Amino acid sequence: MSHIKTIAATLVFLFCTCLQQSFSQSSKFSYNKYIDKGDTLNYRQLYPDADTMRKYPLVIFLHGSGERGNDNEAQLKWGVLNFATDQNMMLHPALVIAPQCPEKMSWSNFSREKNSTDARLLPAPSKPMELLMGLIRQVIKTMPVDTNRIYITGLSMGGFGTFDAIERYPDLFAAAVPVCGGGDVSRVASIARLPIWIYNGAEDPAVNPLYSLEMLQALTKAGAHPGFTQYPEVGHFSWLGAYSDPLMMEWLFRQHK
Which domains are present in the chain? Predict the structure, then answer.
């Protein structure tokens, strides 16, 4: 009986520790709003506690569909807090922007058939993507951003948003990490020279892994050398592995335009 109590106490301690760490990391992100012509994009911002005389890489993090809304909180639920650990901020100090997509909207603007992985990039960006580009331009003007080291990553809806952003604005980014997303295979020539690392779960029931595989194949045929990680026996939560991967973090922050 005492053994069971010890195990229970240990689990409670670990759970409380994780909650404390999560709260500590989320508190490092300031609350912000970007407003343009009456439209608002909520976002959270991580600023490195380091020498302000230097410029920093800028990381754009796009959340999934379940974190849409206007509370300016939910977008920190998955993945982005890995950039705010003490170890990562020491090794890779960076400005991190985590915007929140409004309800019933999306980061990307692809035309997609219901039972097909064929996606086509539509001419106009979605309203959240348009606002995000305005926010990035503002941050570049007002903060110490190294414009040769602007990175974008996202999961699920944000994975599609990541492909949308790099195919729509191929000259802006220095690297991209789309997680369980997809893009327009007909547009890969424009991003063939961009460092990309694609992640997916092999048994993802929400985003068909073929989206990632087809982008991998198209990029490779176009002369690109993308990274690709597909986790066996993993469903939709492939981002748990992706953003905990120290090799990915090291790789990402090495990239320059």
Answer: 30-254 (3.40.50.1820)
- In three-state secondary structure terms, 183 is coil
Sign of the Cα torsion 230, 233, 236, 237 reads: negative
pTM of the prediction?
0.89
- Per-residue pLDDT averaged across 187-195, rounded? 97
Three-state SS string across 229-251, please?
A: EEECCCCCCCHHHHCCCHHHHHH
Angle at which helices 127-142 and 157-168 pack, to 10 degrees?
70
CA distance 57 to 206: 32
Extract the tokens encoding 37. 């012509």
Identity of residue 12? V
β-bridge mates for residue 145, sequence order: 56
* Residue-wise pLDDT tens digits, 109-140: 999 877 778 899 999 999 999 999 999 999 99
